[in-house]
Fold this protein.
Amino acid sequence: MNIINRTFNYFLLILILGGSQFGIAQSGIDIKEKESKYYKIVDVPIPEDVVLEVGGLALTNDDQLGVSTRRGEVWLIDKPYGSKPSYNRYAHGLHEALGLAYKDNGFYLAQRGELTRLEDKNGDGKANLYKTVYSWPLSGNYHDYSYGPKFMPNGDMLVTLNLGWEGKGVSLVKWRGWMLKITPEGKMTPMATGLRSPAGFGVNNDGAVFYTENQGDWVGSGRMTHLELGDFAGNPSGLKWTDDPLSPLKLKPEDIEKQSGLSLYEYAKKVPNLKAPAIWLPHTILGISTSDILIDDNKGKFGPFDGQMFIGDQGHSKIMRVAMEKVNGVYQGAAFPFIEGFSSGILRMIWGSDASMFVGMTSRGWSSTGKEDYGLQRLVWTGKTPFEIKTIKAQDDGFVVEFTKPVNKQLAGQTSSYKLATFTYHYHNTYGSPIVDQQGGMVHAAKVSEDGLSVKLTIHGMRLGFIHQLKMAGVKSKTGESLLHDTGFYTLNEVPGGVLKSPQMPAMIKSGKGIHQPKRVNQMPLTWMDGPEKKLIIGTLPGLKFDKEELVVERNSLLQLTLNNNDDMLHNLVIIQSGPNNADIVGQQAMELGLKGPDMNYVPDSDLVLFHTGIIQPETSESIYFQVPKRRGEYWILCTFPGHSQTMRAKLIVK
């Protein structure tokens, strides 16, 4: 008992010193170089006169790559694996085609208002049949995107319809916010609702349907949900159509509390149709705008992750990896970093015939960490196996962690090699959610398997309905390699047997609510007897930009600066010291805050930071008050929300 107490006290000390907030803090350049030893990103050349803003990808029977674009074209690329592919425009005049599939010698794609079949009837390489399979109403709202289709094993197709945006997600016309099942003959069945921005979805090898969701109103963070007929995934806007005779559920928008004070997992216990996510992708840590789902069915030709899922991210231009399992009939599992460094925002991914991955991209004005407006690249396995966490599997008293290579048994058997934190998100109508109810846990025992490929961790502090961040920085391979990515995020909805036996930890340390940030002054100081000497306002523009490139102020003056966030994303405003690289430095520091980010408004505790706002919700504002620096010069104004700082910049010019 004394040993347990000493271990507990040591772990508590680590938490108090900051060890409970385990961000992934490798620099972007560093990790990209390491990842490239195992997976190479290869450009697919695009002619200068082709604007390939990729909306969908599909291979033909002749191994030509079909590419639909958001500009309403479909291109056929011959020899897409080589250095000199040829491009043929197969179809045009379509309306923002954000999906593509190929079957029975023709393409299927979702336009804004319909599911369309394209076919080349006379063999000239051009579509001369444009056939409407099924159509749905249009509202004219810019946010009414349509995605798909994806084929189910029985030949039916799935499409998803984005919500419109009017300061919040809205279903302006029928079936917006729904997943629809459509037969090749055009019979439609509404399958599930509660969707907000369902850009990615797919069907696994067992025929189960999953879709990815972006942070927004009712969506605390990126996530992936298993959808079945009659499921409600969380955003109530689409529930306005449940009176329709075709609707598989009768829940109404007014049945959902706007501010329940609960997590989505907890609220799902009250609402039978509500489906908790199978996987959470922590916002800013594992991307900011989830997109496509691709299942590895290459039987080892793409590396050691056969059967797992890859999840694209548009904003961070990177791909995550998900190892799923089914416990008590419920899908859940762990998400991991995988590859970053793509040229633009990832929207679509498919397998080539050589087991390489085609990655189609567009920034679409939203901006992304990849700076190109659009792109097409291939991800190729080099044949080398990285030392990675392969899977994390739930037990009733801990986890079994599997690795891609045998571990150093001594290091992997030490409990100090592991750190655990658990957290969740609010389920409410507000845009996004901070990390809430964060607690530390303790790895009580670590038992390494005989072959060194797995470790059974006995854990104190597991919690059903929470994301479990498990960091394994102390684990090395038998040959001395460090893990390429040492952190996994397991969404724990169930445990084998249904009863959690892991002892609960006291709430040793909560998420840092109420963190004092002295550089954020959002009430006028009492000493400003005559008020501010100047008031300035800066707003936001689509594409991650401020609406002003520079603000001019007198040195040493008393300034009230207001950020109006009239965008549909979260933003902040940070003023930093002048200097050629300071904006890049502070932006990278914000990316590395990890779980601390939301509580710190994504503002690093840095001497380079002079003044800042908090995180500003869409359609809201915040004013800050400060005395302008005495030194003349040009100071940076940034949004340091992860992924925004590269483009969202302005100058504060002090005269």
User: Anything to note?
Assistant: The first strand starts at residue 39 and ends at 43. Residues 156 and 630 are 67 Å apart (CA to CA).
